[in-house]
Amino acid sequence: MYWLELAGETDAFAAREAATAAVGVDLLAPGIARTGGIDRARVRRLAYTRAAHEAVARTDADVDAAVAALRAASLDRAGSVAVRARNVRGTAGVSTETAERELGGVLVDRGFDVDLDDPDHVLRALFAAGPRAEHDAVAGADGSDADVCALGWVAAEAARDFAPDPTDRPFFQPGSMAPADARAYANLAGAAPGRTLLDPMCGTGGLPLEAGLVGADAVACDAQAKMVRGARRNFREYLGSPGTDDSPDWHVARGDATALPLPDDAVDGVAFDAPYGRQSKIARHELADLVGGALDEAARVAPRAVVISDRDWRAPARDAGWTVDAAFERRVHRSLTRHVLVLRRGDVAGSGGVSTEMSPERE
User: Fold this and answer.
1) Fewer CB within 10 Å, N or C, the chain?
2) Are 182 and 83 in contact (CB under 8 A)?
3) Do 4 and 27 form a contact (C-beta atoms < 8 A)?
4) Residue 251: partners with Cβ closer than 8 Å, 6 or more residues away
């Protein structure tokens, strides 16, 4: 078993993304989830998980209880150690300094040497209290109160190797998506080495760029020639020349999202950020026709998709043959809340957010 140390402020969304790298993700407390197994390489590519920790013990969010649990735990490690405690979002009334000192004392009593600078192993102590998130697509996200200390050895940490902020890229347009969000949506759409992700409305290329950075091949298109040229500039800067050395293969072309020049089942996943309400007419399409047509085409070329917009497109998604696995509302700022749909094609069995090709480590 592993503890997942979540990032961001929306635990249900973070847990859903984490399920692309872990099995049976279950929310325990604010910022903490558990899982029965992880794929370490995929954990390193997550946007809204800080780290995964091999479980040692779980108790109440109390330093004395954590010390007692550690004393009773089986510790199958050798070498130097350090303790890092965190009061998740300030929800637990504990002193992390006291927790680190007391838990470190237990480890010394058990024969470990403490090395705060370069330890062989790091024991993480996560303290959290308060209501869990509420969401019907994430196990344990039921809104009930929790009071947890999760003790675990750090097993894998997220690299957070996103592309630079959009304003720092060679090509930028206002409204570009934050890199962490683009990474999370690409992960939810199945981006991974050996897979291909399509963005049929790529804009400046943020979504497929993050897919490429996690090792997926990327296919992108946009109706505007300016966006196609700009996305290519960004891809060359951060992904290199397509298909060379260790770079992923990538292609950017001008195209219509409602009439893709691709054969059936050409890609493994689709992700797109639909035009928002202020852009009520796009090229020769009305917005509803554009999104509906894009959903139809996405279902033709891929078994899974993620759609982001300023409104809920669930009805058109179902009309296009998609099953809605999860729907989230994510506040960006006062005047914008993003609606996120995680979709699978009706002929594809559900996997609870976990790829059926994944073989997580169970240690």
Assistant:
1) C
2) no
3) no
4) 218, 219, 220, 242
Distances (CA, A) of 5 to 19, 36, 51, 339, 363: 13, 14, 5, 24, 18
Are the beta carbons of 56 and 152 closer than 8 angstroms?
A: yes
Q: What is the pLDDT of residue 280?
A: 41
Q: How far is CA 310 from CA 183, 220, 248, 278, in A?
A: 19, 21, 31, 10
**Structural contact between residues 21 and 38, judged by C-beta atoms closer than 8 angstroms:** yes
If one compares 357 and 130, the residue with the highest pLDDT of the two is 130
CA atoms of 61 and 30, how far apart (whole Å): 12
Q: Vertex 354, ends 137 and 141: CA angle to 5°? A: 25
**Residue with structure tokens 């940490």?**
157
Read off the pTM.
0.93
CA distances (Å), origin 255, targets 141, 171, 201, 233, 258: 40, 19, 9, 18, 9
Please give the Cα distance from 156 to 200 (Å, whole number).
33
Output DSSP code: residue 45.
T
DSSP string, 233-259: HHHHHHH-STTSTTPPPEEEEE--TTS
H helical segments located in 110-193: 179-188
Both tokens of 297, joined, read 């085409």
Closest by Cα among 356, 345, 352, 185 to 271: 185
Longest dimension (CA), the chain: 73
- Euclidean distance between CA atoms 33 and 12, whole angstroms: 10
- The predicted-structure confidence for 42-97, as pLDDT tens digits, reads as follows 999 999 999 999 999 999 999 999 999 999 999 988 999 999 999 999 999 999 99
290 residue type, one letter: L
Which residue is associated with the tokens 């809204």?
48
**Which residue is associated with the tokens 């809104």?**
143
- Taking the CB of residue 325, how many other CB atoms lie within 10 A of it? 18
